[in-house]
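Re: beginner question about structure tokens

> Can someone show what the tokenized structure looks like for a real chain? I only ever see the sequence side.

Sure, here's an example I had lying around. Input first:
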Amino acid sequence: MEEHNRKKIDASDLKGVIRKFEGFAELLLLTVVYYFTWKTNYRGEGNPFYWGNGKIVLSLVYIIILFVILYMSDGYQYGHRRLSEIIISQWIAVVIVNFVTYLQLSLIGNKLLNVVPILMLTGVDFVLTFGSCWVFTFFYHRMYVPKDMLMIYGTEKAVDMKFKMDERPDKYVITKVVSYEEGYEAICKEAMKHDAVIINDVPAEIRNDILKYCYTNEIRTYIVPKISDIIQRGGEEINLFDTPLYLVKGKGLNPAQRFVKRTMDIILCLIALIPGLPLMAVVAVAIKHEDHGPVFYRQERVTRNGKTFDILKFRSMIEDAEKDGKSIPATDHDPRITKVGRVIRATRIDELPQILNILKGDMSWVGPRPERVEHMEEYSKEIPEFVLRTKVKGGLTGYAQIYGKYNTSAYDKLRLDLMYIENYSAFLDFKLLIMTVQTMLKKESTEGFDKAGEMEKKRANFMQKRGTTRIEDEVDLASERQNETT
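And the corresponding structure tokens:
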């Protein structure tokens, strides 16, 4: 068993080295293609200073920008994320880098250059990145065998994590699920039989004991964080004594961070309004022409420090679609959605007017999605900590919008939002904005309430199956998974 675990660990370490080598190889390949595009089409366009070694500077600038944008869009996560997600991330990065590069070359040439070579370069880059991602992902899955994992849960809802991870059998294989009530010794015995352990919603005392045991025995451990864990992660380390201290201020962003964030919001709004205003004018005319109703839909939402404001959206439904102000979630073929509404909802254009909310200062580009007043009251009754997400302004996009789904629980949304608040940086905001574009281009990432009901059924069936079964006679899920695979 020890030799088996050691091979797994070595393979995992090797995986990271190979991924870095693959990323560097792809960067080099794309830069070489750019260099020949520049040499063939732009070398003589008003930039004689770059006939010598200046071409090396241009190539270095290109590879640096490409590396940064790919990193910010998680474009190097071969095998870690789905193949389609990696390809979309890299295509978005390529478009951004080549657009910036075109502006750079035009600035050097002191005129707008022919855009066709850059468009051709982008097309070639699309083909190369698609092939690279496919090959790298293929080798990742050939080299990396999914872990034989033990899941330890504390509450019935914690079992939902198993069903979520089952959707990625290429990366995670949970072969056994046990309750913490089985006892520390029995759990440790089981942990030694597995390559990895997942600890989810287990009481702090026994969770800490299990974690220390796994750490001592070099067993890979995944922990679903509690709210207090996320808050502690954002603490400031203080080393004044021989006992470590962490300072948790609990104030959200400091004044300097708020200033930087607000400045960035205003600049991005002004940039976005250049193409946005004509588009918003066209949409407004289309909405008005269809049924002569109001162009905007206003709804009261909660932002920083519990302050309320009216969020703006383009109206995508008939007037009075929500009777008595009650929220009625729209379905795919909801008759309340207008013809124009179907288009702007599918393309997310209905959210564009929120640029005005951001300019006014009610919202930010990135932050926890502002909730309706009644939802805040309802969630706060069930989860008192839910109010913690209002330590910063509500955002047009955020962690929960990128990594969550429509039916993600309020508690999970809170965890995601607090992770953003406690790890805030301007760099993180840029990264989330780029990843938002990726989310918009993917197939609808929001699953409806029917999916939530399906999860509850799975949980109920699972718990019913377990019944009074003891740890030693649970079904061996590993053999079942193996049979399904073969």
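Each token stands for a local structural state, so reading them left to right follows the chain. The chain is about 55% helix and 10% strand.
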